What we know:
The chain is α/β, with parallel strands linked by helices. It has helices at residues 23-34, 63-72, 77-84, 94-99, 131-136, 138-162, 178-190, 199-205, 215-219, 224-234, 248-258, 272-285, 301-309, 321-325, 410-422, 426-429, 444-448, and strands spanning 41-48, 58-59, 108-111, 117-118, 125-130, 166-169, 195-196, 240-242, 264-267, 292-295, 316-319, 334-343, 346-349, 364-370, 376-383, 391-392, 395-399, 402-403, 440-442. A seven-stranded antiparallel beta sheet has the order 13-12-1-5-3-17-18. A six-stranded parallel beta sheet has the order 7-6-11-10-9-8. Helix 11 packs parallel to helix 12 (272-285). The longest helix is centred in the first third of the chain and has 25 residues, at 138-162. The model has no long low-confidence stretch (mean pLDDT 95).
Amino acid sequence: xxxNHQPQGLLPREDELGLLTDLYELTMAAGYYVHGMxxxxxxxxxxxxxxxxxxxxxxxxxxxxxxxxxxxxxxxEAQIEYLRHHPALGHVxxxxxxxLREFRFCGEVWAVPEGTVVFAGEPxxxxxxxxxxxxxxxxxxxxxxxxxxxxxxKAARVVxxxxxxxxxxxxxRRAHGPQAGLLAARAAFLAGCSGTSNTxxxxxxxxxxxxxxxxxxxxxxxxxxxxxxAFAQVFPEVGTLLVDTYxxxxxxxxxxxANVPMRAIRLDSGDLLSLSRESRRLLDEAGxxxxxxxxxxxxxEYRIHELVSAGAPIDIFGVGTELxxxxxxxxxxxxxxxxxxxxxxxxxxxxxxxxxxxxxxxxKQVYRRRDSSxxxxxxxxxxxxxxxxxxPLLVPILQQGRLLQPLPDLRAIQQHCHSQLSSLPLHLRxxxxxxxxxxxxxxxxxxxxxxxxA
Length: 454
């Protein structure tokens, strides 16, 4: 064991983002350089190949962090030296490593605004940049947009199930690492959650931080009444009391007996339907109609739907593990593919033809049509220069590596997402898989596009 070894947090510095990518992205970039292809303009598109079986729609998220990465992307001297001595790059000329010192993303980005409802096969983001640059950024863009889109889509289902009752992200402690907790808090708020238990996420994002007390607080005192009174002495304005440490209904009685400022009680276990009803009865009989009921404990959209449908008097749902991991559908089949390349001989459309993974060539745009009441009717994907009926979804974000206009703040994105969810046909908002998937069509021009010079 090396006694001089210091613990490493593995948190990326913003001036050292260059190696946050898979090795093969770098070997390809070096190979393009050797063959004189590195600066050929190339267009890549990122999309989800198939919707997960239990999803009728997705909510696009993660664009702000993707743009942040593209604008700050640099290679440090230490990273360049690491690559210089990597055995996989042993035959790469020294000039390529030297060129990394000046590496800056100088490309163009079109993307679907965050909070937009999207479907399989539709580009969420399109990059046009020198081939080597567009290649290197693949890994970071995929993980950033995939994770937040995954969590935002899950959160949207939970929010829809709550039918107007508040939902709070309680998932940080169950996230796949601290950074995932921060990003999940953002994605959850974007999709309609009202706050987060993650204090740093709340600070950075300027959203409500929500917290009550743990069972350990209750167990640290001789009894519940003493615990509640001690808590109220320090936090008179917070006043949410956890009542299920021993016996839930007796805990409610003890909370009333403590006679302290109390905004809410929290139920974290047991039959939440019957316990919320009995708790509401006890509170109302004591004249405490003002006290709200918060429920938590392995909640997901299905349990919330059951509770709301049964008329459970629950005002706020705290959702943790199920939200922050999207436990029922924990992954998205996201891809990032080269669709167009400007060669010395002309513009070439590129595509895959392998079974189940076929792609369409050339840069694309997505057009969304609505019916007379404003509900989503159908989407059309066509070549970027095509003019199809409907609203174009991809908008310009970066040009020559520079932001064209400020990105919307998180609350504006949340409002946009709410509007999008309200425009979804009702059968697509259902928690169960629909027998009538939303129609996404590909234009005749795309179907007839050939590979070769345009």
